[in-house]
Amino acid sequence: MERITRRTALSDHVIQFCGFLRRKDFPIGPQEQQEALASLVHINWKDSTQFKLVLQCTLCKSFEQFTQFDELYYHYWSSLKKSVDSKVKEVATAEQQQPKPKPPSFQEIKNWLHGNQASDEEVQMAQASDHEINQTTDLKMVNPTQLQDWREIIALLQKLVDQLPARRYVPSKSPKHLHFRATLNRNLRYGGEMLELKFKEKKKNKTQIVLLCDVSKSMELYSKFVLHMMYMLQNGLFNLQCYAFSTSLYDVSKPLKSRDLQGALKALSSRVDGWSGGTNIGASISQLLSGKGNRYLHSKTFVFVVSDGWDGGDIGQLEKSLRKLKARVNRLIWINPLAQSSKFKPEVLGMKTALPYIDYLIPSMEVGGFKRWLRMLVT
CA dist 163 to 62, 146, 157, Å? Predict the structure, then answer.
């Protein structure tokens, strides 16, 4: 059975309804969810007719979907209403007991990876389908094709940071740049006659890559890419520091250093307790700036932020944190899945706030697309 969970905000119900339609073969992604939520601001959402029509206009992309919408809409919302009415006493009892919060579990990370379908850690309120969601799917390691793509991505990232110009020169055996002073000093023993040549090259920079990955509710659709990215880059780059964030920031560099993805995710379960929660980008970046991660931020640091830009925190704090971060590092690169659409406009306030501080906006949550964009940056 496909289950509908009780939410505390209308926006959460709308997002869950979008997921319900997506499982009915409606092509709904973050862009459509964003349009639906933005449209509800301009109507009286307590008017059921207006509410339904707005969702129908924003979520249906064909005549067939338009005709199917009414039945699916009433089935979903009526099932939810009945379930809430039947569970009022159960919820009241649960609130009185106030059980202690559970620590994060490996199953919680698996649920986030698969879109939080029928999570056992949520209060189940209703059933709205005849098909049960399969929760036994094992997390798979990257397939051979993707593995090769990630190896190329790692090489491109290393090449990108190695392009930073260095001011100092060091002695070199490669005859690219003649070291005039060293050559003159060396040949004084021969009376100034040039018998030996000395060469120099620019000193290699001690570059640093910092990866900040959003693991909040709004990023569930791209969870596989995000987890693979954290795991592959952490184990492929010696100069990378990896963090996960939702409402807080978590250093996940050590837990990710495992021989297999399964082991890394199990290690993450004891470190991160913000899977599929809210988002506070400003507070998370502020933690990075004021905590131990501060030592990785300098003029040779490349910071990659993987997020859709949805932020439930203080926008003023986000702007202040991004301004400080940008002043400290060499490049700030933002990977946003919503930017893949040709109609993309930064309507989300968090993304609007971030744009002035971003050097590159990469619109891809797919391995091949990310690799193509990195090639463009390198060349």
Answer: 48, 26, 10
How many independent structural domains does the chain possess? Answer: 3
Residue that is last in its domain, among 204, 229, 248: 204
Residues 230 and 358 in one domain: yes
Q: Cα angle at 166 between 163 and 167, to 5 degrees?
A: 155
Establish if 322 belongs to a structural domain: yes
Instruction: Say if residue 290 is in the same domain as residue 262.
Output: yes
Q: Are residues 179 and 310 in the same domain?
A: no
Residue of 324, 315, 323 lying closest to 282 (CA atoms)? 315
Query: Which pairs with CB-CB distance under 8 Å and at least 24 residues apart come from 77-80?
Result: 77/17, 79/4, 79/126, 79/127, 79/128, 80/4, 80/6, 80/13, 80/125, 80/126, 80/128
pLDDT along the chain (379 residues), means of 10: 51 80 80 80 77 84 82 79 51 49 54 52 33 34 71 86 71 78 83 80 78 87 84 87 91 83 76 77 93 89 91 90 94 84 72 91 81 83
Can you give the pTM of this predicted structure? 0.59
Domain that includes residue 246, residue range: 208-378
Whether the CB-CB separation of 297 and 328 falls below 8 Å is answered with: yes
Encoding tokens for residue 229?
Answer: 């990215």
Cα–Cα distances (Å) from 244 to 74, 181, 293, 355, in that order, read 38, 49, 12, 21
